Amino acid sequence: MIYSDSSIFPDPMPHSTPPVALFDFDGTLTRRDSLLPFLRHCVGTACFARRIAPQLPSLLGLLAGLVPNDVAKQRVLAAFFAGWPMARLEALGASFARDVVPGLLRPSARDTLHRHLDQGHRCYLVSASLEVYLRPWSLREGLAGTLATQLEVSPAGLLTGRIQGRNVYGPEKVARIRAALPRQAIEFAYGDSKGDLEMLALARQAWMQGKPWGE
């Protein structure tokens, strides 16, 4: 379940010092998942269909709770990107952030993000989606940082098809936040799924699917 664009997001309150606001991406700032559109952006519709078909059992297993999130994602990433030059994917990530991401955004959520930014709050994107397209989008929007899933690169600059470290989901979100902001109190957090619960628990004020968390 996700909220609609008619949902009312909270207006961030003024604060004496710049507080930190954490935002999930898929389903929170966007209307839908962003990884599959990114894969199609990278290889084209026909190639996307050919490469995603063998991964359907893993994706269906993920939806059914039979395949872990990180396992399904790693299988898909290997099928699409193993052996690619990282520089090629970075260029595609930048064009996806510029040309496609704006159309995926939920207007009410983007307005909330920009109200935080307009008040000088330090906003961070914390997402299991790929850093290769989230970071350029975050920079364009003026966020303070991006904590997202990274891809492993060989010494030759080629993608191995594996995730570097862990998928930024659930407890890993907290680990990344604590590493990046070791002594910083978290004032606001926004999420939409069980993968955000640990992150929401860090914040003094948290919202799940546009509603105060815990209500």
Could you name the key traits of this structure?
215 residues, alpha/beta, Rossmann fold, 7-stranded mixed sheet, 7 strands, globular, disordered N terminus
Structure description:
- With 215 residues, the chain is an alpha/beta fold.
- The chain has one domain (20-212): Rossmann fold (3-Layer(aba) Sandwich), CATH 3.40.50.1000.
- The protein is built from ten helices and seven strands.
- The protein has helices spanning 35-43, 45-52, 56-63, 69-81, 86-99, 101-104, 107-118, 131-141, 171-180, 197-200; strands at 20-23, 122-130, 145-153, 159-164, 186-191, 203-208, 211-212.
- It has a seven-stranded mixed sheet.
- Helix 5 packs across helix 8.
- The longest helix has 14 residues, at 86-99.
- It is globular.
- The model is unreliable at 1-8 (pLDDT under 50).
Structural class: alpha/beta
The description of the largest β-sheet is: 7 strands, mixed
Query: Which runs of at least 5 residues are low in confidence (pLDDT < 50)?
Result: 1-8
Average pLDDT works out at 90
Total domain modules: 1
Number of strands: 7
Please give the CATH architecture. 3-Layer(aba) Sandwich
Q: How is the CATH topology named?
A: Rossmann fold
Taking the alpha carbons of the first and last residues, their distance comes to 16 Å
How large is the share of residues in beta strands? 15-25%
Number of helical regions: 10
CATH homologous superfamily - what is it? Answer: HAD superfamily/HAD-like
Q: How helix-rich are the residues, as a percent range?
A: 40-55%
Secondary-structure element order, N to C = EHHHHHHHEHEEHEHEE
Q: Reading side by side through the largest sheet, how are the strands ordered?
A: 4-3-2-1-5-6-7
